[in-house]
Amino acid sequence: MSGLSHQEHHLHDHRSELTRPEIERFSRQLLLPEIATEGQIKLRNAKVLIVGAGGLGSPAALYLAAAGVGA
């Protein structure tokens, strides 16, 4: 154990900067003032639960992954 509490360890895992590959992959989203770097970091650190992978769940999972959610 590193001596960090669970919450401190969880916060420590969230990187506050984007990597070069992330910047290249999400460059179009980063240009939008509504998203920018801060928004993309929030998307990367987000967690989503999709119940069902049918006609709506499958494309939703694809679009969320493509946007960088949980990446």
From TrEMBL:
Domain annotation THIF-type NAD/FAD binding fold: ranges: 26-70
Domain of life assignment: Eukaryota
Record-level GO cellular component terms: cytoplasm
Coiled-coil ranges per UniProt: none
Pfam families, alphabetized: ThiF (PF00899)
Gene3D superfamilies reported for this sequence: NAD(P)-binding Rossmann-like Domain (3.40.50.720)
GO molecular function: nucleotidyltransferase activity; thiosulfate-cyanide sulfurtransferase activity; URM1 activating enzyme activity
Stretches for region Disordered: 1-20
The protein's name: THIF-type NAD/FAD binding fold domain-containing protein
Organism from which the protein derives: Physocladia obscura
Organismal lineage: Eukaryota, Fungi, Fungi incertae sedis, Chytridiomycota, Chytridiomycota incertae sedis
